[in-house]
Amino acid sequence: MATRRYSLNPETRMDQITDAVGVATVTASIELTVDWTALITTDTLSSAQAKAQVQMALEKIESYLESEIAKLNLPG
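RESULT FIELD:
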């Protein structure tokens, strides 16, 4: 599976998300890197368990952003 990098900009449609193999390099304003190999081999998870772990991590990120967004002092 290897490391996957998912890149998108806020205006990106679902079918325009970049899904690339390899280390993270900044190509968009929003990026997420998932090391699937580490989840499966190092953490000894099945593919389904790895997917569930990533989904839980995304939920944590979403909660974090919701709680921290007010602190960012963004314009508008």
